[in-house]
Amino acid sequence: MPRLPINSVLPKIRQVLSSSTRLVLSAPPGAGKTTGVPPALLDAPWLKGRKIVMLEPRRLAARTAADYIARRLGETVGRTAGYRIRLETRVSRATRIEIVTEGILTRLLQNDPRLEDIGMVIFDEFHERSLHADLGLALCLEVQKAFREDLRLMIMSATLDTHSISRLLEGAPVIESEGRMFPVETRYLPPAHSEDPIRWAAAAVLKVLREEGGSILVFLPGGREIRYVHRLLAKAGLDSSIRVVPLYGALGREIQDRAILPAPPGIRKVVLATSIAETSLTIEGIRIVIDAGLMRVPKFDVRSAMTRLETLPVSRESADQRRGRAGRLEPGVCYRLWSEESHHGLLERSSPEILTVDLSSLALELAAWGVSSPDMLPWIDPPPTAAFTQARNLLSDLGALDGRGHITDHGKKMVALGLHPRLCHMMLSARRLGMASLACEMAAVLGERDFLISGPDGRDSDLRLRVEALHGIFEGGAGYFSGMQVDRAALRIIKKAVDRLKSQLKCEKTPYDINAAGLVLSFAYPDRVAVRRPGDDPRFQLSNGRGAYFASPEPLSAESLLVVAELDGAQRESMIFLAAPISFESLIEHHGDRIVEREIVEWDRRSQAVPARKQTLLGKAVLEDAPLSRPDPTRVAKAMCDGILRMGLDVLPWTKPLRAWQARVLLMREVNAGKISWPDVSDTNLLETLEIWLLPFLTGISRRDHLSRLDLKNALTALLSWHEQTALDRLAPTHITVPSGSRIPVTYIPGEFPVLAVRLQEMFGAIDTPSIADGTIPLLLHLLSPAGRPVQVTRNLKSFWESTYFEVKKDLKGRYPKHHWPDDPLEATPTNRTKKRISPAETQKR
Fold first, then answer.
1. Which pLDDT score is estimated for 168?
2. pTM of the model as a whole
3. Cα–Cα distance between 428 and 414 in angstroms, integer?
């Protein structure tokens, strides 16, 4: 073994594992735990010739670790040390150390829950908290408890919350190893406020190349940014002694090796990497790290059932991991492209995947394991209830779970394929239709990173182009395809995936129609069938209710029906990245059980009407929409009631007499006049009971402007019986006959005393104030001048005559001298004449 810091604790590890079946190992980057621990345990007595399986969170790390261990053992990969990663396996019967990644450990557990030929499972770089690592640990703990008490489990990490891990492992021993770390100087180099952070990263590389010596590792969030920085550096005219090399998961092995291995003498490397280079990998020759401070992570939205990739600031833990890369071999320097102040605002560590990603694959694996609820297994962080429920609902919709939540035969076949449940269901459904070959190619394209960078007119979202590319159309360079940019490394990986999937499904080489891609895709995404909305602006509505659009016009924009495989999912309207067209006939034939017809009779706020329509829907997407010739009158009336409720009661054709009627009833209700149970005809209650009293009178009315012909008077008075209406006219009359003989209207206003506005002279001789409700409610008298202006307001007429009248008389007599103003109003004759009558003698005298 080479001289590594991990060597000092290897004896203690062996000693602990001789008596304990669980162990937590904390060792910083560069300690050598990944390549040092497994070989040191091969001769342990408790292993009994069984294999050690080590789970790595990344494919590149798994392959390079196996290569390194094999070289140290003087062997080729696949003998004592081998690996299994997606699409590539290098193991043999002699393999004792098997390094696996992604869902391979889960497959081993599902195929053999006792893990008969495995003596130890190591979870490396566990701090990354991948979904597969959390699931694998939960299942291994169950295996250890139920079948294999002798099975050893070890958790290894560079930065680990050993307390929570040890607690999950019921107090497992913890061993800490020193690292081998040279001093690293940290320098903060934030961009200007308006500067693009990725362009600034390229500028920082050029600055550091001028000022520092040694090779550089640049951390960028993803492949797109790596290609962009690569182009900027190429345009800068770098010296031939500087070699720029990308490093991310989808690249071919040759390119990845150029990034990892030492540069030739006289050559400086600039490695442009994603977070894949944070841990596990040792990139030879690196002395300088430039960290853009960004990472790209998947975020699952339970409401939309969609996953989107978000570019976020790194955590402080990740930043420290990246910084440490500069001190592996010699003293180094780390340039952080953010301010020291903002560094303190970073999250301490990133969220585990189990809390942020789509859990449908996890739910399917648990169902295959026989677990219906995650509460039945031990977790560091249990799966969120809402996300797990949504995942099981999806599995039920895809036929993977039955009505009791148990896995079906179809679900078991999905588990065996090892892809996302949507893609598994798509492949199995397409095989029944003789389209297995097309489905395998589509699943491979969808399961890996998009290899089509752009077309001659920008990015093209048509999934069919990707499938056609697999058959060499791009290599031919003919026609439309000649101007497209292709990620060849990603394309090679997808072709390998196609071969594996076709082998699994035992596909025969039969021709297929590429235009069936939309139908095949609909089996995976029935909730993402998109219907083009009317109008020139190409907008779509998905069957899950969300909106979707293309960032710029492209051929798919003109299609009336699409199935969308990828979209950003950030807003209510999401940008479409990948889709395929489908015909209406295909939807009817293959998704008829999801399609419903309904009659829509609802109030429309914009048109302020009830537009009755007949619609054909897939989920919430409207496939067909036509006017309904004979809508149910009752439904129309109810929809109008809903419209009136939204607009308010004032939209009805009220008149002053109707408002007065309302006030009369409310007054009688308030005083319980006549001991009658008067109805509540307040605006609030009338709105709440619209369908009870107004519905029968809305026949033939379907628009707001139709309300002008509504017989509101009959609708309201129908709330009273004939007896109640008669009592109302008696108890709260509309007019009162005053002493002059005139019938004067009574003014009723809700919440106020009823008012009788009458000329003062018409009340001469009257002592008692006029009243209603069998004399219990005196009217509020507005005594008017001859000109009809109020001169006194009172509810006590007798008191007015006895006191205030004489003051009023002086004023009125001066202003209206031709009118009769008696000294004793109680003895005077009431009159409705405006002036006093002059006798013939007086006329002759004048």
1. 83
2. 0.77
3. 8
